[in-house]
Write a structure and sequence with these properties.
Largest sheet of chain B: 16 strands, antiparallel, barrel
Oligomer: heterodimer
Largest sheet of chain A: 5 strands, mixed
Strand order of the largest sheet of chain B: 2-3-4-6-7-8-9-10-11-12-13-14-15-16-17-18
Structural class of chain A: alpha/beta
Radius of gyration of chain B: 20 Å
Largest interface: A-B, 24 and 26 residues
Order of helices and strands of chain A: HEHEEEHHEHEE
Shape of chain B: globular
Number of helices of chain B: 2
CATH topology of chain A: D-Maltodextrin-Binding Protein, domain 2
CATH superfamily of chain B: Porin
Number of domains of chain B: 1
Strand content of chain B: over 45%
CATH class of chain A: Alpha Beta
Order of helices and strands of chain B: HEEEEEEEHEEEEEEEEEEE
Strand order of the largest sheet of chain A: 5-4-6-1-7
Chain lengths: 144, 326
Amino acid sequence: MLYFGVVLGFGMRKIIFFILLASSVFAAEWAVVASSSFKPNSLTQKQIKDIFLKKKSYIDSQEVFPVNLSANEKGRMSFEDKILSMDRAELGGYWVSQHYQGITPPITQKSQAGVKAFLKSVKGAIGYVEKIHLEADMKVLYEF
Amino acid sequence: MKKYIFACSCCCSLLFGYEPGEGIELANSLKVGGYITAKYESGKDTSVGMLDDIAFIAYGNIGSHTRYLFEMENVGRYSHNFSNGKVSQTGAFRPERAVIDHSFSSHLNLSIGKMITPVGYWNQTPINVLRDTTSSPLVATNIFPKLITGAQLYGDAPHVEDVEYTVAAQSSRDLDEKYNNFMIDRFFGLGAKYTINDDHEIKAYAGSFRERVTLIKRNFTHLAYKFEKNEWQILSEAAYSTIDASNSKNTTAGGGFVQSRYKINSKNYAIARYEYYFDAHENEKQHLAVVGYNYRPIYPVSFKAEYQLSSTPDRSRFLCSISALF
């Protein structure tokens, strides 16, 4: 009985461990954020994509200013994959064609601290940070 | 060639933080760039090589809601006809675009100046390097003016999701009509774009314009559809135009094209296009089948080759080009 209890206990611990591991792997780790004064309470993936591709500069009556992490920062690739649904080559081609139209890519910040500082200083700014770096005065608009 | 392009890119990156094809930022509100095209064309009676296009663009923001764009272009810089040995050159850079754009809200944006006519998809990217083929479909170049000098209002349609509108008007001479396909002094048009989902879009446009010298009035309607998913892009446009020449009988022109593009990988694209075009005014009717290949070692550099098989045998031709955006 004790043997089965030990085996069951060990098995259960393993199951719980794997559940926790899986949830940490698959759970959203990043959040698209803005300052708390940002009017919309949430955005759809398409709205965020349009903002970061500079197709939209307003959401409802809120003017928006996207800020990206630098190209080699972690999170940027995930953002491009999950939100923009574009690979680097596609995105490069897109911005080349926008250059002809006189439209530049979003400004970039080298770190998440830089993104957070930008959000605080520019009204309507929207960026993305790891959820562990969320602060009280930030509004989460989308998780990925 | 790859090494040369790579070396140039590295030098510019070190000097200006330059990304190929994305211009150089000279100041906070001033970015400059340009493009260049060389092409070769060989048909039944002609064999011509030319440095076709050199252009410089400058753009930037004036405050957070206003931006400007200025483009100077030199078309037909150098041309050598190998059939008769004739060489021609033009040295003049002329204003291709000069536009100020102000955003009031998502529903209301205003552009004033000389700008690309907001019709269809093909006309929005009229430079070689951004196109899939060296040639342009006849229906995208012969039905409406590619540029207008006037004002355009555009934005998201109020109360209708995923629909954008545009209204454009001109009531003066072109800022510089030399490189426009029609010399016009009147234009009015309105259009809409509906984004069905991430993959499908449609556009509709109706317009009217007057040719300045002949006073011929043309009314046109235009429909465009774009599908893009994974490796495939399907682009189709159709237009119909009535030509009201006061000193002769009224006639019509129109046609359409369907083009499919297959992305083999990020550098190689295969293109096939079918076109139909008629112009009763010019007594012309033509079917065209185009097969082409586009190689982009990096996206802003394009090597293209295509063959056009025309129902008018004299017009079948081979074209190739090298173009770059910088």
